[in-house]
Amino acid sequence: MSTLVLDNGAYFAKIGYSHEKVSVIPNSQFRTKTSRLKTFTANQLDEIKDPSGLFYILPFQKGYLVNWDVQRKVWDHLFGKEMFKVDFADTNIVITEPYFNFCSIQESMNEILFEEYQFQSALRINAGSLSAHRYFHENNSELCCIVVDSGFSFTHIVPYCRGRKMKGGICRINVGGKLLTNHLKEIISYRQLHVMDETHVINQVKEDVCYVSQDFYKDMEIAQLKGEDNTVMKDYVLPDFSSIKKGFCKPLEEMNFTGKYKTGEQILRLTNERFAVPEMLFHPSDIGIQEMGIPEALVNSINNMPEEMQPHFYKNIVLTGGNTLFPGFRDRVYKEVRALAPVEYDVSVVLPNNPICYSWEGGKLLAENPDFEEMAVTRDDYEENGHYICEEKFDI
């Protein structure tokens, strides 16, 4: 039996057999301005010659799977002959779902996995639980860890003890990568250039130029300086999809501080947006979301745990998800948690080498675990007992 591990994120699906490498593939469909009638699915995005004004059709809304038609088409593509050539009669699946998922979504997922695709067995689990599994596997002397999963729709903070999630400490912040990209689109559209339709391009800009400030007010002062003293300023060359396929930052020596460039390149000049956008992860109230930032929520979550466990959580903070890739993210989380934590506790913040695929790697380990068969539900079990057996087994 082979096991397929699918970390079904709201933006990227991380998928691969447990004995192979992971593939990171967009979990959506796309339409372009030029060919409105043709729909591209998942990694067919690479075939689009001109992705300006790219229109996303996402299966997830606000972190929950709501558009099953789109999700089915993405899964058909992933499981089909172009990609993984899944032989359902001989395959188990480990699939992730969000925290606090709705029963109706869980039941639809059970039906699709067992009745439509006919997998031999399935395990539905939170991505954070897989990250915790991987962390405990690598640090087997530790009993507790707290996972920060900052993804496309939400940021979740979840404490784990002996591999089980502690429901009393789960905290959700309604800030994720989608909100950051949309905010950057608004700022650029207001200040320079109308880019409200350019989600694909501006998402790339965000990933290329944004960083987490270690001293917000100091960076704000630098961003107001003129000329070469302004070390925050970056000129970003936008793609035209004929000669420039992908946007890039102008090297420092080529930057023209007067703002005039002779060539036909389209330039975005970015200053305080570079750090003001990721700052929303630390201060959501800056844009009117009355919630705690990540460090404060971390401390709040740990404070909800029994006192004797708290030092163990402070010592094992694990960062996962795409937003943790902003330069300076880990240092800022460490600095702020250290300032809020009791003096006598050690604080350690771990950023894995690949925080996007960390939970998939946990799923791979779990699939090879001798206990895997105990945790999964087989198709025979499901046909005999229905959804009830899934609810009983999967709430881990």
Automatic annotation (TrEMBL):
Record keywords: Cytoplasm, Cytoskeleton, Nucleus
Annotated compartments: Cytoplasm, Cytoskeleton; Nucleus
GO molecular function ontology, one term from the record: nucleosome binding
One protein family per Pfam: Actin
Listed InterPro entries: Actin (IPR004000), ATPase_NBD (IPR043129)
SUPFAM superfamilies per the UniProt record, alphabetical: Actin-like ATPase domain
GO cellular component terms given for this protein: cytoskeleton; Swr1 complex
Family: Belongs to the actin family. ARP6 subfamily.
Name under which the protein is recorded: Actin-related protein 6
Species of origin: Danio rerio
Gene that specifies this protein: actr6
